[in-house]
Amino acid sequence: MWPLSSKELVYLSNLEVLILAGCGLNGSLPFKDMANFSSLEILDLSDNAFTGSITPYIGALSSLKAISLSVIGLNGTLNTPEFCALKKLEHIELVDNDFEGMLPSCLNNLTSLSYLDISGNRFNGNLSSSPIASLTSLEYIDLSYNLFEVFSFSLFANHSKLKVIQFLSDNNKLVIENENHSWDPLFQLKVLVLSNCNLNKLSGNFLRFLLNQHELEVVDISHSKLNGSFPIWLLENNTRLQRLNLRSNSFTGEFHLPSDHYMNLRWLDLSDNHFDGKLQENIGKRIPKLETLNLSQNYFEGNLPSSIGDMSNLEILDLSFNNFSGEVPMELVANCTSCYILRLSNNNFHGDIFSKHFKLSLTSLELQNNNFIGTLPVVPLKIQVVLNISNNHMTGLLPSCLNLQYVEHLLLQGNKLTGSLPKAILNSSSLVTLDIRDNSFIGSIPDEIDGLSNLKVLSLSGNHFSGVISKQLCQLKRIGIMDLSNNSFSGTIPYCFHNITFGKLARSYFVYTGVSAFGIGSFLLPYKSFLYTTLRIQGSGFLFPEQVEIVFVMKYRSDLYKGLILDMVSVLDLSFNKLTGEIPRTLGQLSSIHAMNLSYNQLTGPIPKSFSNLTQLESLDLSHNNLNGEIPSVLTNLTFLAAFNVNHNNLSGKVPNIKQFSTFEKSSYEGNPFLCGPPLEKSCTDIDESPPSPQIPSQANDGKWYEVNLPVFSTIFSVSYVIFFLGVVSILYINPHWRQRCFNLVEDRMYWCYFFALNTLKGLPGRMCH
Ligand SMILES: *[C@@H]1O[C@H](CO)[C@@H](O)[C@H](O)[C@H]1NC(C)=O
Ligand SMILES: *[C@@H]1O[C@H](CO)[C@@H](O)[C@H](O)[C@H]1NC(C)=O
Ligand SMILES: *[C@@H]1O[C@H](CO)[C@@H](O)[C@H](O)[C@H]1NC(C)=O
Ligand SMILES: *[C@@H]1O[C@H](CO)[C@@H](O)[C@H](O)[C@H]1NC(C)=O
Ligand SMILES: *[C@@H]1O[C@H](CO)[C@@H](O)[C@H](O)[C@H]1NC(C)=O
Ligand SMILES: *[C@@H]1O[C@H](CO)[C@@H](O)[C@H](O)[C@H]1NC(C)=O
Ligand SMILES: *[C@@H]1O[C@H](CO)[C@@H](O)[C@H](O)[C@H]1NC(C)=O
Ligand SMILES: *[C@@H]1O[C@H](CO)[C@@H](O)[C@H](O)[C@H]1NC(C)=O
Ligand SMILES: *[C@@H]1O[C@H](CO)[C@@H](O)[C@H](O)[C@H]1NC(C)=O
Ligand SMILES: *[C@@H]1O[C@H](CO)[C@@H](O)[C@H](O)[C@H]1NC(C)=O
């Protein structure tokens, strides 16, 4: 809705600046109502919900110098002659709309244009023959995320003022044309961002014109399949270089800085390449001002040089997924006072990292999958958000002074920790994940566990816990994943488990924890890539940051899950314990649960009919208990059930064999002598009163996957569809390559969201609402 009436408009005819960003406006663009805004110089309508395209009425805004129509749902082409006639335009932002077609040639009238951001649309065509070649006043251009088919840098042959080129692409069809060899650029760039642009298709390793640039401050040529050795010349030629992003290319060889000190370099990302060898001893002296160093996913090896402790501004150090070995230098754990993310996971580090020198105060410490030894320190660890020491050789007790006040994710699985859960650490409302599976903890679950009021994941599996399952667990209403399997818990399943949500609460994903993480004061845009550093873990918007990985079993598969899935899936696993008594009927109220595993206990009584209300259930395992009675036929309502196992109980009667149940094979029912009907060989008609001879378990799998009866096919089809969707999601978590691609996409998009959120919060003078 356009907020101004025509009467009010009369008074606004001298208006020079109009900012209506994020005001919830809708309908078509209001240019018609702005007919006498001939003095208007700056117009910001971004972040509203208009429809249609740019109308000829825009021609009335003849003084317009800057216009932002970003994220407002426009479509159509830019082919509006009245728009091209706004000759005073210096600044155009059309980010994230649905504009399409080629860039119209009339744009070359805009001879004053210095800032053009058309990223996130569906513009297409051959950029080499586009009007951009004549827009020689351009200083800033962002062409990212469109459908352009051809691009060549000689497009900018006549541009002398150009400072920023951003071209992030997700378009596989893009062809980057070879540069004209004789071409010498007239410009000196400050920022070059070219991501995912298939630069390997160029002859030669690098863009030739880059050899002549010496004022570069930001270079991002990530995801571009480039190979060759580390481009040391880029650093040598550009002494002001602050950020270099070579992530996800195919660079090889050692990363070696032969001479000189690169005092301006703040941010270096060489991750996901094929670099190898040792790091040079004096690395910390060569790049002493570094704030972010990401060497993850390469083949680096050897000891970490102690000079790394000389990088006194270091904030983020990611060395994960390499083959580094030796001890972590004392200089790093003692001196890195600015560090907040330290990721050493998946290497060969050994030794005792929590020695008396350990003085780090971090947001995230990731040491998983190394060979660290020693005990957790008996002084409070100053770690917020993530502490992951999984799969090392840590021993000893959990110190009761382990300060979990701020830790959100504590992952200690796969060590040799012993002792009981100290009550003192269970008083933390910040803890979301507690994963201590596969250690040697003993004792019972203390009643004080109800202090962990925000816990979403509890995995105690594979320890020696005993005693009854504390009813206080039922107070942990947010739990989605509870895995108590493979312990010695006894007694009955608490009847109150239905108080736990197991996924019933509103999902927490896509809830941004706020813009504050960026510090609005240091608003560094328009160089979007700057956001990479300011993004802290809390700002990622997801409840489970990428470094939280949980193992659990579902549908007979033990997998590592991470990210969104942890927020979506709900699981109760009590298998391999000594639980007795009946299955509480109230478990049937866990209507959002996806997997329940009560196998290998001593449970008695019937399978509750109420389980037919577990409409999201995909995996149900009640095998190896003493259950009796019939398999309730109402369970056939569970349309998503893909794994069902009741073998080795004392169930009787006819096996349900319709809908999903027609897909289960006899292995699901074995060891129940009184069950009958297909898929079991025993028919239900020949029931005589004498106890039947025990069945010889048949190993042969004579059910064939294609023997699906037709009425059931449609159900299975829709189920498979859902499973396919989950499959895609899980592939993203299992396949690092796809994950990488998807995340980088999502990541970049996410920054844009922030960009606009920030834009509307900037508090510009003259703002009329918000
Ligand atoms: C793109 O346009 C340029 C200039 O008009 C032309 O030389 C080139 O062949 C075109 N490329 C393609 C793939 O059409
Ligand atoms: C650059 O300018 C020259 C001289 O004005 C012209 O001949 C040439 O075509 C222009 N190049 C491009 C790519 O527009
Ligand atoms: C940049 O480095 C390359 C390769 O070492 C060299 O050929 C070129 O002259 C250098 N350019 C400048 C401006 O120093
Ligand atoms: C380092 O790079 C890897 C791979 O490119 C990425 O997954 C990871 O998130 C980066 N680390 C940090 C701390 O940003
Ligand atoms: C990692 O380094 C160790 C020596 O520290 C070596 O034995 C091993 O082969 C290396 N692994 C790989 C994958 O390079
Ligand atoms: C739990 O922590 C709060 C705040 O840190 C404190 O006030 C309270 O006394 C603690 N409770 C117990 C039982 O330790
Ligand atoms: C149970 O946990 C122990 C370690 O405590 C492990 O060795 C064993 O494989 C686990 N059993 C199952 C069935 O997961
Ligand atoms: C239930 O748990 C047991 C033991 O952890 C495991 O072997 C089995 O595969 C699980 N059942 C399902 C259906 O995932
Ligand atoms: C399923 O849930 C509904 C609503 O909560 C309840 O009325 C019904 O009795 C439940 N069915 C069974 C079999 O428990
Ligand atoms: C199994 O169930 C039958 C009745 O269906 C009962 O007669 C028998 O005693 C039960 N066996 C055990 C071991 O509980």
From TrEMBL:
Bilayer topology term: Single-pass membrane protein
Superkingdom in the source lineage: Eukaryota
Assigned GO CC terms: endomembrane system; plasma membrane
Keywords associated with the record: Cell membrane, Glycoprotein, Leucine-rich repeat, Membrane, Receptor, Repeat, Signal, Transmembrane, Transmembrane helix
Compartment annotation: Cell membrane; Endomembrane system
Bilayer-crossing regions: 712-734
Annotated Pfam families: LRR_1, LRR_8
SUPFAM superfamilies according to UniProt: L domain-like (SSF52058), Outer arm dynein light chain 1 (SSF52075)
PROSITE patterns (alphabetical): LRR
Family: Belongs to the RLP family.
Protein name: Uncharacterized protein
